[in-house]
Amino acid sequence: MFAQGAGNLVAPFFGGIAATGAIARTATNVRAGARSPVSAFVHSLVVLAAVLSLAPLLGHLPMSALAALLMLVAWNMSEAKHFVHSLKTSPKSDTLVLLTCFTLTVVFDMVIAVSVGIVLASLLFMRRMADLAEVKLVEEHHHLPDRKLPKSVVYYEIAGPLFFGAAHRATSALHIVHDQAKTVVLDLESVPTMDSTGVVNLRSAIARLHKDHLVVVLAGLRPQPRRVLEDAGVRAIDGQLLIFANVDDALDAVTGETTQPVSRLQDQD
After folding, report:
1. pLDDT at residue 178 in the model
2. Measured on CA atoms in the order 66, 72, 78, 84, is the torsion positive or negative?
3. What Å distances lie between residue 94 and 80, 85, 87, 100, CA to CA?
4. What is the value of pTM for the model shown?
5. Which of 24, 72, 139, 162 could bond 167 through an S-S bridge, CB–CB 3.0 to 4.6 Å?
6. Cβ(250)–Cβ(244) under 8 Å?
């Protein structure tokens, strides 16, 4: 209770809504339209006022009436129709999480069920995000409508977050399809975030391309991946690794224009 009280004091500073010790009161508060931490504050004042002013009267309520009230609240919280509908329509992975949480709640308690459910949902989320990350060889792209890249240039688009669940799967797809290639452009414009594992896998892919005597061009880096790469010490290397603030500048460079690459990963005006 002390830990929950401390958590409720801290949660509102991060946009959270304080929860009561009994999940039934929290659920009732939310179902009544609660949308902000103020609702929990008002709720606590109402409960306090009831205890202080109505305690003698509430003491005469029969336990059977209170039990019936709790049964009604429990039934409303169960959302049986929604539960059955979810079983029929949800993907198998979501159904597995739902049934696991339901079984653990009945057999053990809600604390164990919620803890296991959060872990399973997190793993499921990481798997789905990993499936979103991909690398594809691009022949037609919104940056290439009026451009014809020379045969010595290969253009790859990397899309999706590069974190530990997806980075290896994505970067392992980098390969060269013909022997005339001398330059590989990696379009990172669709990579919103990257972690340290993503940096490691990207570096490994670049090293493999360098081993094949290919010049690598990184283009279209967003702010977060740009900071991560700079913190990891990734720098432009003449004749090996070129870094551009946007894709158009990179394509201008590889097609013979005079655009200069970025020597450091920083915002360009």
Report:
1. 62
2. positive
3. 17, 12, 9, 10
4. 0.55
5. 162
6. yes
State pLDDT tens for residues 118-150.
888 888 877 777 666 667 766 655 555 566 777
Contact predicate 229/199, CB 8 Å: yes
Number of Cβ atoms within 10 Å of the Cβ of 254: 25
Q: Give the total residue count for the chain.
A: 269
Could you tell me which of 261, 263, 197, 267 has the C-alpha nearest to residue 227? 267
Dihedral of CA atoms 184, 188, 191, 195 in degrees, nearest 10, equals 70
Provide CB contacts within 8 A for 233, sequence distance 6+.
Answer: none
What are the residues whose beta carbons fall under 8 Å from the beta carbon of 217, sequence distance 6 or more?
Answer: 183, 184, 185, 186, 241, 242, 243, 244, 250, 253, 254, 261
